[in-house]
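Workshop exercise sheet. Pairs work together: one partner reads the sequence aloud, the other fills in the structure field after running the prediction. Swap roles for the next sheet.
Pair: D.N. / O.F.
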Amino acid sequence: MQAAPDSEVVLSQFNRLIRELLRGSVNRNTFQPWEVELLLDFDTCEIRETGRREVLKRYQKAVQKQMEKGAPMPMKLSEYLSGLKERRRAVAAGSAADSGPAR
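Structure field:
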């Protein structure tokens, strides 16, 4: 049974992976199992090429905050995008409720 990796080490490896993705090339052939999961998840997420860089930077910042609060592993990009979608819906529903019926 393997011990859970140190979250600082995981965060450092995560940041390296994101830097490689932002650069557009991953030049290594050895990955941690969780990195493979993130890469496979990233590959399934539909992100417009024009917004890809900005989305990755925001995702990286969100994971950093999450891990600073004690998360042992980074969330997947799909989880991050799903959370964004939910927040947008909540804001839209809140602003629709605030406007109320017109008189």
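Discussion prompt: The radius of gyration is 17 Å. What would you look at next?
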